[in-house]
C-alpha cells in the first residue's frame, strides 16, 4: 500500500487530529534554528539546517501524565518546539499543505551535561537526546497553511510562569527549507515528524515541575516531572 494512504488514519474532531504515536516512523529534530537560542548556548548560527534524531520510544503524550526522567545524569533542559507531521513524502514544488497534514507543540528534553561531555570528546550524543520520555508531544492539530501558523506563538509555562515563547516566522530556516534539506539528506515519508527547533529561553527542569504547552495562548498539553 502507498505510504501516503497508510497514514490517512487521522481523524479530525473538534479541531484536533487523532494520531497514534505508534504510527510515527522517524523523529527528526533541527538544531540551532533560532538565532537567539544558538547565541544563548554559545553556538554559531548555522549556514545549513542541522539535523539529529530521536528513537521513537522516546515519544510520549503531554496528556497530564507524570513523566519519569533520569535524575542521576546531570542537568536536564527543556526545549519547546513546533512539530510537523508528514502525510506523504516530500516532493519538490508541491505545496507544503499537501505534504504536512498536522502539527503539535513538543518538548525536546536534553541531558545537557552529558551532551556537552560527549561533544567535547567528539562522540555522538544520541544518548543525551534519545532517552525514554525525551520527546514530548501535545495534541495534534490540522495544518491548514503556513499563513495560518506563521504569526501565532507557541510557549512553555513551568509552574505557572512562561519560560519560553516562539514563533515560526523567526526560524533561521523556514519549513520548506527544512523539508527539502531533510528529504535530500535523510529521506522523508508519510508518518515522519520534525521538531523544527527551539527559541531562546531553554532552561533546567527539577523534580515536581509542572509543564504546560500553549499554542496561540491556549493550553494544549501538560506533564508533571519526576526525576528518578
UniProtKB/TrEMBL annotation:
Keywords for this protein: Hydrolase, Metal-binding
Where in this chain does the record put each Fumarylacetoacetase-like C-terminal domain?
27-224
Species per Swiss-Prot/TrEMBL record: Polycladospora coralii
Keyword Metal-binding on this protein?
A: yes
Q: Supply the Pfam families for this chain.
A: FAA_hydrolase
**Could you tell me one molecular function GO term of this UniProt entry?**
acetylpyruvate hydrolase activity
Q: Which InterPro entries match?
A: Fumarylacetoacetase-like_C, Fumarylacetoacetase_C_sf
Question: What name has this protein been given in UniProt?
Answer: Fumarylacetoacetate hydrolase family protein
Asked if the keyword ATP-binding belongs to this entry, the reply reads no
Q: Which domain of life is it from?
A: Bacteria
